[in-house]
């Protein structure tokens, strides 16, 4: 649509400007039909014209955009071919005489080529040969052929080649564009010997006297390498007298990992025969095994067992030829083999013969000798003894039962009777003790305490055994292992506690040094490692002596002590060196055996050290260890102080990074290449090497096969590169720009993790399908020289096949310089030695001059500047700062190695052309290498956010030196990152990770990681508490319960608590004050406080006094109470109320009177007093006649401490403490006193005394 609009506008324009001058020419139309590029350079434009002026000429000019000044083709033909993909502008110029007009349009030729690409896959079919499949991944193949190798094949439609012998082949695939792509493939397989000899098992029964049949097992010693059939086995069997027999067997097939083959082994009638076997596999591998011993004479054994308590002798011969005979030449009296085996003495044919005793024909105990003679007349004599075996038992300690356990039988007949005749005192049964009652199913099992035992056991066959055994003490062992601290006294050690043959129940520390921080005894039971409970580990212990009381699950108690002593080390620091990332640099790690380093200074350093001396590098301490890199090679003096104040000043020599071997080559083949890698350096970390391919569309290095890129921030690995190994790496059938990259590690700055060093060791390109890289022109006085730069397997052959779309042939041989060419479009063809053919259309009018290219200008590596090399050219390189010094006279200016600080600058190369003839002036080209610095991204950082919406500049989290021009990446994908500023708006709470990357040259980069912990903010802390309290009431503190949060209350009088709602306190004056609450969840902290006032309760007593015969009550304050501003409320029977400090109870009834005193309008103390009598006059007459009047001497209500009565002669007749009204005229013994006048004394509790006379008259 755009081209149509553009054409329409152009037509209007030409109509407008040409209406006067060129009206005589018709306004024609132009239509361009495009045939896209399907083969290299076959793009075609076809022109259609309408409404042209008769007899006018139309000339077509085709421009390759964006160049609109120099056409690639000018023609009057109605088609143009030989175009490569791209955008073109077509201008049609109509002329007739001096009149002209034009039309133009823009078209695009699309690249629809499917450039042939294939992989060769080989499958091993025997030891050395392969079936090969040519797998075309892209393109349109029409035939496949092998043009070179141990065997060749003419073009064929099939992509498979079978049973190719070892060697190097050139495969060629021809496509529909008549292009031919050649690729090298090597058929080579290693076939290490892998067969081994297993067991030889001969059959017991023979078929002949000379040979024994059996099986021999063969195995592979490598599970991934199957046995290679057929296997040829050459046997040699030898007798002790050196006579031998040889034979050969072939094993045609069998299992992949093992095979059991039948064998016939010679029998020499000796137990020390040997055989040797030489095994040859299908690949020609030969392995010899032997001599291997084997038995070649008959054997016989006799087993004795019981069948229902009757003994059976079973004779078992082997390697015998039946029939055979048996002859007992010695036996105990009473043994009659003929009665036990009717066939005795034979002949026998079976593999076993049994002699079974009966009730009347026993097999007695004793010594036997048996003579065995087989069918080959070979005789073997075998002696054996028959006994009743003693009872077998097992006495073992079982920790779970805390006891020794006796079990029997282990093997043999069931037990029917067990009687203990001797046992230690701890065995609680009365001896002899018949323990048969605990036999279960013929098995006896019982726990035995330590001591000596004698036991009589009878089995089910009636055999009696006398057992004597000693049961020892439980073998429980407890061991303490000190973990002495390295360093000074302040360091902490540990104690390991182990137990054998039991388990821990509890561990209590009973003694410890004075600076042990916990009170003793200290329960260490939680440190027992469960569930085994056989080991405990107590840590963080100051030096000194510790005593532990250890109780096991059986209740046994062990007391053990151990002493921890400090070990202060004054030896040199422990140094580790990893040479650094960059030529001549190193990295180190230093640590003290005493613990943390607290100060480190570099006091002397080589000249290249970038900091003034002395240089305090303590900032690079991490967990008490120094980690530092970027150190130039040379001698250093480092002063250090550790936590034990051990001061050292030591000399170190750092060697720096050096390459000791560097042979890396891309070796081109036809269609594939090999990588020769022999590279070593002095860095001691693990090294890995990878082959990667450059993807220009992604701008990233990728895996050559899968295309997986090495994304920003990642390091090379097996997913984005092909691992390489030292030596030759074969058959890489890829094309493009490649690099060999090395990955190793060195120490970081101030961090224990290692830093990755990624170094490009070699870059190169391989286009095994043959490529025309460039074409450029050299201006000369006669005609320009055209130089075609191609890459492929030499020698290359150059020719021209067309000119301006017409056939044209020019064979240039192996020269890539063409001369005498007139302007126009030429099709150049190049063929390589492999047979690949490529074509390229070149417009001579659009050629560029040569240019300088840079390769691998990486710090400390081997780089270069280069121009295209040609034997007819001469070169001179120089630096702009010193034009008189010629740096190189080849096509390459090497930097070996390259250092930007040394080599940055402007470079020139003069190219002199030595063509035949004259008039080709020199050309001077220029290239600028800018100065660079290594990237620094700073140190990792972590920050916690506790606000609901935060905007954070991530640079504020980085530490250390960093360059501000890097790129921040949101690793977590939160979407809130804008540049370096991250917003939490709308994001869920959680942990977010960001990477800051600063890129340098040569794929160098540095990264730092920032972790932002975005936590849910804590809610507002509203403390709930009574702010004014009375002493003695509960002081309750409460705060919101926040899941996952920790609480810390701190208040007066040493108060602390760790829950949201602590248990209520007793409000006392000491509890008054400010209570502060700190709540923490994750890294978020909130605080709140409240002030509590505590008012003491009023303290007072009620004093009862007698005034004029009436009871008066008075509130009397007690220290420290002050009731000046208090309010008072009395209450009592019959609605009595008053509010004065003293009340008169005249006329009031007896009962409970209560005084309530309130201070500050808040705190009230209520004191009741039981008033038994509100009238308190002392009686002067006593008439105990039960008439209800003066029956007793009533002093109720007077709070009497002691009451005494005396007769007129001063003798005490009655006395009572805490008196109320019990005296009714009786004496101290309870008898009645005579009527008369008596004297009394009353001692009140308030300290006053009352006395008087009373008349006693009882009316008697």
From TrEMBL:
InterPro entries: cNMP-bd_dom, Ig-like_fold, T9SS_type_B. Keywords: Signal. Residues 744-789 form the Cyclic nucleotide-binding domain. Residues 1-23 form the signal peptide. It holds the Pfam family CHU_C. It comes from the Bacteria. This is Gliding motility-associated C-terminal domain-containing protein.
